[in-house]
Amino acid sequence: MSAAASGEQPLLSLRGVRKSYGTGAARKVVLDGIDLDVAEHACVVVVGSSGSGKSTLLRVVDLLDDVDDGQVLLDGEDVADPWVDANAVRARLAMVFQQYNLFPHLRVLDNVTLAPRVVHRWPRAEAEQAGLAMLEKVGLAHKARAYPDQLSGGEQQRAAIARALVTGPELLLLDEVTSALDPELVGEVLDLLLALRDEGTTMLVATHEMGFARDVADEVVFLHEGRVHERGTPAEVLDDPRRERTREFLRRLR
Ligand SMILES: Nc1ncnc2c1ncn2[C@@H]1O[C@H](COP(=O)(O)OP(=O)(O)OP(=O)(O)O)[C@@H](O)[C@H]1O
Known about the structure:
alpha/beta, 10 strands, 37% helix, amino-acid transport, EC 3.6.3.31, six-stranded mixed beta sheet
């Protein structure tokens, strides 16, 4: 049951979110009135063709981009309001990108503990204990002292996920986290995300991995030209033969 249906306030709600880039004739509307809810412990997966606005949607939630109009409500508070302290909001969220963005000159453990130490001012010992526990969880404790270029792509992405989770964010934003990986490395990252979802991690995920969306999503939101074209359970959105545009999109992905 959705948060709205159960009467609970979702952790995250987007209401009428609009975003465009450029001006005049070059103006491009990327998000055209998006409504979306993510309940606590839910996994909402956003799918759609390239350029449909998936990354932009995650970026406005993480306050990396401003919205032109609409609300981004975190626990009911509109965090898109320019008066809100963006750093305080970002401390409650964590985003993982397609390119893992690990610092190449820092060992894996130092990558994972950097934000806790520098941003959150945790003592080094406490940060390292939490960092090692998180690396253990993603199966990388044995790589804590390695540098990123000594890890496979899948391991680097798992390290990036450990880094995102170490401070205990309320919402994990995942933007095409398997797109840069060789096909044989995709499975290990998806398995980790499945395990996180089973633990109740609240997630908003943009992906092209339809199999993953089927396995992991409580709700699939299909974006098309900046609008929500379909939403529902994976079976409703991905498998219903009457949903012609969704089928067309899935055919193109094959
Ligand atoms: N900073 C920007 N300036 C101008 N246009 C942008 C900017 N960021 C994104 N866009 C445009 O907005 C549209 C949506 O981009 P976005 O990255 O959100 O799509 P996407 O669905 O995530 O695509 P993909 O699946 O290829 O990652 C695209 O047409 C893109 O070119």
